[in-house]
Specification:
This protein has 401 residues and is an alpha+beta fold. It folds into 2 domains: 103 residues, Helix Hairpins; 183 residues, Immunoglobulin-like. The chain contains 12 helices and 15 strands. The two termini are 47 Å apart. It holds the Pfam family IRK_C.
C-alpha cells in the first residue's frame, strides 16, 4: 500500500482506496450527506453504503452456501476452513473408537499390553481387530486424520474383520473429498475475485462542469494503470437524489440513468489511455436546472459512475465504481491534457491525471443557457487560434490512406 501511494499522485483516487483526507474538513459549513456508493467504489464489504436490517429469512443465505462462504471475510473463512476439518476428524475419530469398543479391540489391546506372553499361551493371537493398533480415543483420532488426508504411516490399518469399518472408511473418504472441494474452491474464488483487477482502474477525484461544443457538460476522467486491457469496457452513470412524485410519494434514493458521451461513441470505451467521459446537460438531463449556486448549497445529489468490463488475462467480469457529491463537482473547470507524443509513441503523465484549469463558463443553468443565447455572446471565450496552433504542432508526421 505504501508503494502504491508513492507511485500514484493524490489528485485522483484509486477504486477501493479510501481518501486520506476527508472532504468534510474543507466544507464545515454544512453537514455532508451520506454516500450511496463509496468514493473508492466499495463500502460494507463491496456493496453499496446500505445497511440491511431486520432480515427474518436468514435461511436463504444457507441455500446458497457457496456464495455465502465466498462473501465472508478472510478470518471467518479461515476459521470455517479449520473447523470443518477438525470437526470431521473428531466425528469420525469417535466413530472409529466406537467400532473398536463394540468389537472388543480396546480390551484385547489392553490385555496384550499388560501380558505380552499371554497371546502365545492362551491362543489370543488369533484375535483380529477391526483396525490394528487402536488403543484409545487418541489413536482412533490419529487414524481418522490418516484416513481423511490419505496419510499412511503404516501403524494402523483396516482389516477384513468388520464390514462396518470398511463402510465407514468409504464414507469418510467421500466426506473428506467434498470438504476439500468446497473449501479449496471457496479460497480460490476469494483470491481470484474480479474486484482486485479494479484496483488499477482509476477515476478523477473531482468531476467538472464546463462548456464543450457550446453546451454545458458534466465531465470526468477515467484510466487504467495496467498494460493488460479491459475488454468490452462499458461505462454508465446514474444520479441518485431524493425526489417526490406528483402524488406526494417521497423516494429517498431515486436512481436516474443519464446518457453518456465519450470519444469513441456510445457507452463502450477503448481504455488504452485515459479518457474524458462527458455527459451533455440537455433538457433530458437531471442536471438541466442546476447552477453553481444551488449545486453547492441546495442540491442534495450524488452522481455514480460504474465501469464494467472483462479482464483480458482471466476472462472474468470486473466492475469499478465511484461517486461524486455536489462539493466534488467543480464548475467552470476542465481537465488538462496528459497524453503527449514522445519518440514516436504516446506517453501518459499520470501526475496530472486529476489536474484542472479554470475556463470561461456561464454561471447559469443549462435551461437558461439554452433559452437565452445571448449569454454566450457576452462570455470571453478562449481564442480559437491557439487551439489551431496546438493542433498543427501535434499533427502526426504520417498519414493513413
Amino acid at each position: 500500500m505504501l508503494s502504491r501511494k508513492g507511485i500514484i499522485p493524490e489528485e485522483y483516487v484509486l477504486t477501493r482506496l479510501a481518501e486520506d483526507v476527508p472532504d468534510h474538513a474543507r466544507y464545515r459549513a454544512r453537514e455532508r450527506r451520506a454516500r450511496f456508493v463509496g468514493k473508492n467504489g466499495a463500502c460494507n464489504n463491496g456493496a453499496c453504503n446500505v445497511a440491511h436490517k431486520n432480515i427474518r429469512e436468514q435461511g436463504r443465505f444457507l441455500q446458497d452456501v457457496f456464495t455465502t462462504l465466498v462473501d465472508l471475510k478472510w478470518p471467518h473463512t479461515l476459521l470455517i476452513f479449520t473447523m470443518s476439518f477438525l470437526c470431521s476428524w473428531l466425528l469420525f475419530g469417535m466413530v472409529w473408537w466406537l467400532i473398536a469398543f463394540a468389537h472388543g479391540d480396546l480390551d484385547h489391546s489392553t490385555r496384550l499390553q499388560r501380558s505380552p506372553g499371554e497371546g502365545v499361551a492362551g491362543g489370543s493371537d488369533s484375535f483380529v481387530p477391526c483396525v490394528t493398533s487402536i488403543h484409545s480415543f487418541t489413536s482412533a483420532f490419529l487414524f481418522s486424520i490418516e484416513v481423511q488426508v490419505t496419510i499412511g504411516f503404516g501403524g494402523r490399518m483396516v482389516t477384513e474383520e468388520c464390514p462396518a469399518a470398511i463402510l465407514v472408511l468409504i464414507v469418510q473418504n467421500i466426506v473428506g473429498l467434498v470438504i476439500n472441494a468446497i473449501m479449496l474452491g471457496c479460497i480460490f474464488m476469494k483470491t481470484s475475485q474480479a474486484h482486485r483487477r479494479a484496483e488499477t482502474l482509476i477515476f478523477s477525484k473531482h468531476a467538472v462542469i464546463a462548456l464543450r461544443e457550446g453546451k454545458l457538460c458534466f465531465m470526468l476522467r477515467v484510466g487504467d494503470l495496467r498494460k493488460s486491457m479491459i475488454i468490452s469496457a462499458t461505462i454508465r452513470m446514474q444520479v441518485v437524489k431524493k425526489t417526490a412524485s406528483l402524488e406526494g410519494e417521497v423516494v429517498p434514493l431515486n436512481q436516474i440513468d443519464i446518457q453518456m458521451e465519450n470519444p469513441v461513441g456510445g457507452n463502450s470505451i477503448f481504455l488504452v489511455s485515459p479518457l474524458i467521459i462527458y455527459h451533455v446537460i440537455d433538457k433530458n438531463s437531471p442536471l438541466y436546472d442546476i447552477s453553481p449556486l444551488n449545486l453547492h448549497h441546495h442540491e442534495d445529489l450524488e452522481i455514480i459512475v460504474i465501469l464494467e468490463g472483462v479482464v483480458e488475462t482471466t476472462g472474468i467480469t470486473t466492475q469499478a465504481r465511484t461517486s461524486y457529491l455536489a462539493d466534488e463537482i467543480l464548475w467552470g473547470q476542465r481537465f488538462v491534457p496528459i497524453v503527449a507524443e514522445e519518440d514516436g509513441r504516446y506517453s501518459v503523465d499520470y501526475s496530472k491525471f486529476g489536474n484542472t484549469v479554470k475556463v470561461p463558463t456561464p454561471s447559469c443553468t443549462a435551461r437558461q443557457l439554452e433559452e437565452d443565447k445571448s449569454i454566450m455572446d457576452t462570455m470571453p471565450l478562449s481564442p480559437k487560434g491557439t487551439i489551431r496552433k496546438r493542433s498543427v504542432k501535434l499533427k502526426p508526421k504520417f498519414t493513413i490512406s
